[in-house]
Amino acid sequence: MSNLPTLEALNEAHTRVKPHVHRTPILTSESINEIAGCDIYFKSENFQKVGAFKARGGVNAILSLDEETLKKGVATHSSGNHAQAVALAAKIAGAKAYIVMPNNAPLVKKNAVIGYGAEVIECDPTLDAREITLNEVIEKTGAEMIHPYNDIRIIIGQGTAAKELIEDTEVNLEYILTPIGGGGLISGTLTAAHYLSPNTKVIGCEPEAADDAYRSFKSGTLQKNPAPPKTIADGLLTNLGELNFSIIKDHIHDILTVNDDEIRHAMKLIWERMKIIIEPSCAVPFAVILKNKEVFKGKKVGVILSGGNVDFDKVKF
Question: Per the residue annotation, which of 49, 54, 96, 109 is the catalytic one?
Answer without folding.
Answer: 54
